[in-house]
Amino acid sequence: MSMVFDCAVADQRADGLAAAAGATRAGQLVVLPTDTVYGIGCDAFNAESVVALLAAKGRGPDMPVGVLVGSWATLDGLVMTVPPQARALVEAFWPGDLSIVLPHAPSLAWDLGRTGGTVMLRMPLHPVALELLREVGPMAVSSANRTGNPTPVDAAGAREQLGDSVTVYLEAGPCGDPVPSSIVDLTGDEPVLLREGAVSSAAIAEALGGPIRVGR
């Protein structure tokens, strides 16, 4: 049976974070708040957990999972190289609402779906998420909804869709309008804005010092 913790209550927050960390290390799924939407997450390096996450959402490996990190420094260990454009975006928007796609380090033993050798990374601006990430390390995280259904604005809404497929739900109140992160692809010769979300294309272009192409 799932456990639900109200992170607005100090004792429950501590107990909930401990339970979520334990569940993550055990290969189980957790729901956590972020600064954009509530997410369903697991240990990024546990391939079976990622498969379970995709199954809980009702989708396959053709829609791979992004990775949340708890610090800037984690980025260096997950990708082949960190180009100057990535550094500029990290300094401007992390922690925050921008996801960056880069070639992942080939030595990493993970399977996030059919990523084509890339990984989408973000550092969220939410104290509960950051505390959990700093405890357990990088987590594979996707929006906490069944594919095709509305993204819930709180953990209770996520539980209605995901049920007991998730071991721990961390409730931190409504996230407001569920606006997704913006996504910038830095795997090619020039940056490409794959999705304009919470961070505007103008703000991204300003951080990069030049225009950004939109599209795939």
TrEMBL record:
Keywords: ATP-binding, Cytoplasm, Nucleotide-binding, Nucleotidyltransferase, Transferase, tRNA processing. It is found in: Cytoplasm. GO terms for molecular function: L-threonylcarbamoyladenylate synthase. PROSITE patterns: YRDC (PS51163). SUPFAM superfamilies: YrdC/RibB (SSF55821). Residues 14-199 form the YrdC-like domain. It catalyses: L-threonine + hydrogencarbonate + ATP = L-threonylcarbamoyladenylate + diphosphate + H2O. Gene3D superfamilies: DHBP synthase. Its EC number is 2.7.7.87. It holds the Pfam family Sua5_yciO_yrdC. It is an enzyme of class 2 (transferase). Belongs to the SUA5 family. PANTHER family: SUA5 (PTHR17490), THREONYLCARBAMOYL-AMP SYNTHASE (PTHR17490:SF16). This is L-threonylcarbamoyladenylate synthase.
